[in-house]
Amino acid sequence: MDFKTLLYEKDGPVARLTLNRPDRLNAITEDMPFDIEASVNQANDDDGIHVIVLQGAGRAFCSGYDLKEFAEKDNDLIQDMPWDPMVDYKIMKRFTDAFFSLWRSYKPTICKVHGYAVAGGSDVALSCDMVVIADDARIGYPPARVWGCPTTAMWSIASAPSGPSACC
To answer: Can you name the residues that pair with 14 across neighbouring β-strands?
Structure first.
């Protein structure tokens, strides 16, 4: 199966899903959530696959939603005023339901984070069973300052990091 926003590679018992928009730091497009869901379903349907590894091409895992693309594209994601939060919720729920295919997967999912995993990118990473993070990675959810809880609600903080490797 061909995907618009990711590469699917079978490496023995490992399905490697690589977000493949490195020129945009693997920012999420309207297609990406559904490519993720379809690739997870493909791996789950393959008895030879035992684990799913999700990673990003280039210098970041995922920089969040591609706001530039969404703003410039004629789509149902941009609302006229007055803004209706329920329209926004309906759209985001479709996306997060697709990300949650990682969480609901029959097979373990592992996310490899390098560079950035921010906003929607952190939603994707935290939907996996395990997240392995590079020492120089930056993970966070800046929209929480404006909109509150992340859309997947997968953030749980045991203790706040400090020092040079602190979040964002």
So the answer is: 11, 51
